[in-house]
């Protein structure tokens, strides 16, 4: 009997194709954003100054958001503003200033009474110590007047460069860069500095802008940081300076979703439209989404 041998041809096995386009997309690596070209320092300075001009258009009424009527009130309010909101400070200071309108009055306050007055502003024990110390120093060393020099201001208890620059710029008209958390965050996002230390941030930014712009630049950047370029989720899709920002895309880029993240009034809620204070005499700024 003749035996027939059957040859078996091996077939190459191929992987099964994904069952859906969604599955295929899941297997495809996400496309990377195109790398930005290196920027010269001159180009960075031009871009930075254009950002400042654009912010001036968006926030023509930018101003310190602490309520004050004299240098002493501004100094006290700025010390109180550490680790809390300007809104909370403005709710706290009327009663405080009614009882302590001068450094002499505040220096004579009972510490426990002062603690109770400023308790809503948080860290009230440390702040009470600073307020009593700086008030006594103003009384004893400066004749009850707030000095108009940086070196004198930073010698007061609880007063650092940030507080000193706020007072100098807004009570004495002396240009200064106020590096708070908002300003430092945006300066790094804008590519003006890579520093984390506030004094180093101040030094880097001071080299980019003319001295005459320092105070208003600080207000504009802080306004933008509070209202649009938030810490955890910036509203990139509703930002008027997005084309100038090297950090575009860190936050929400969808315009409709981004608009819901906007906060325009101090203490405002998401979705509020951009508008100036009720007593601002100038023109209102256009909504960001329309720019």
Question: In words, what does this structure look like?
Answer:
There is one protein chain. This protein is mostly helical. The chain has two domains: 101 residues, Hypothetical protein, domain 2 (Endonuclease III, domain 1, Orthogonal Bundle), CATH 1.10.340; 110 residues, Helix-hairpin-Helix base-excision DNA repair enzymes (C-terminal) (Endonuclease Iii, domain 2), CATH 1.10.1670. Helix content is 45%, strand content 0%. Helix 3 runs antiparallel to helix 9, helix 6 crosses helix 7 and helix 10 crosses helix 12. The longest helix has 18 residues. It is globular, with a radius of gyration of 28 Å.
Write a concise keyword list for the protein shown above.
Endonuclease III, domain 1; 2 domains; about 290 residues; mainly alpha; Endonuclease Iii, domain 2
Number of strand elements: 0
- H/E element string? HHHHHHHHHHHHH
The shape is: globular
Based on the structure given, which CATH architecture of the largest domain is correct? Orthogonal Bundle
